[in-house]
Write a structure and sequence with these properties.
- This protein is α/β, with parallel strands linked by helices.
- The protein has one domain: Alpha-Beta Barrel (TIM Barrel).
- It is about 35% helix and about 20% strand.
- It has eight helices and nine strands.
- The chain has a seven-stranded mixed sheet with strand order 1-2-5-6-7-8-9. Strands 3-4 form a two-stranded antiparallel ribbon.
- The longest helix is centred in the middle third of the chain and has 13 residues.
- The chain binds iron/sulfur cluster (SF4).
- The site of iron/sulfur cluster has 13 residues, from loops.
């Protein structure tokens, strides 16, 4: 069971396998391990276990909540660990599907923003139909719009916002990029399927 794994100079945290989406490209449906790390969790790690697994955070340029699942499912743990890391001046990135406010039924952004430097949100589609087709959100109709609202709601609080899409045949990357840059006014990052397997554990990055 792997709670942390290193890629380059970053340390990735794998704190849950739960996620309200079922994206067709998600690595959790393809393999149990990335670069030899088994990311299937027998039990979700406590804050103490996560901090012990991190060890000395000063060894890394950045610490990234990622994993096989949606880290904001475990909001209290994300806040506690990020707060500790912020106290050590270690940059923290949260890779998310942008459904944190749906999961918790409130605006959680002010709660996490003081402790994180970057948020990376996977939008993945140019409209709701395509999103539903490729991400199969358990929150159902309206989820795509809620993800866009989450991204906009981050803007007053978080300086670095990256919105991503995976290059799969069902999506129009050019249109997604326009939505991200012109409508939402944040940075777009294209991800390739191979990146997910080789650089990271799944579709958020
Ligand atoms: S790619 Fe991310 S959002 Fe999609 S199912 Fe996997 S963990 Fe969830």
């Amino acid at each position: 069971m792997t709670i942390v794994y290193q890629i380059g100079h970053s340390l990735y945290l794998n704190i849950t396998n739960r996620c309200p989406n079922q994206c067709g490209f998600c690595v959790r449906y393809k393999t149990d391990s990335i670069q030899g790390y088994d990311l299937t969790l027998a039990a979700e790690p406590s804050v103490k276990e996560i901090l012990e697994a991190i060890g000395n955070p000063a060894r890394f340029r950045e610490i990234v909540f990622c994993g096989y699942g949606e880290p904001l499912v475990r909001l209290a743990e994300v806040i506690a660990v990020s707060k500790f890391l912020k106290g050590k001046n270690i940059p923290v990135r949260v890779n998310t599907n942008g459904q944190g406010n749906l999961i918790h039924q409130r605006n959680i952004i002010p709660e996490i923003a003081p402790y994180i430097s970057t948020i990376s949100v996977s939008l993945n589609a140019e409209n709701e139909d395509v999103y539903n087709q490729i991400c199969q959100p358990s929150f159902g109709p309206g989820t795509y719009q809620k993800v866009k609202e989450f991204i906009l709601a981050c803007k007053p609080y978080i300086a670095n916002i990256i919105v991503t899409a995976v290059a799969v045949p069902q999506v129009n990357i050019k249109t997604i990029q326009q939505i991200v840059e012109q409508e939402l006014g944040v940075r777009f990052k294209l991800r390739h399927n191979d990146d997910i397997v080789q650089e990271n554990s799944y579709g958020h990055k």
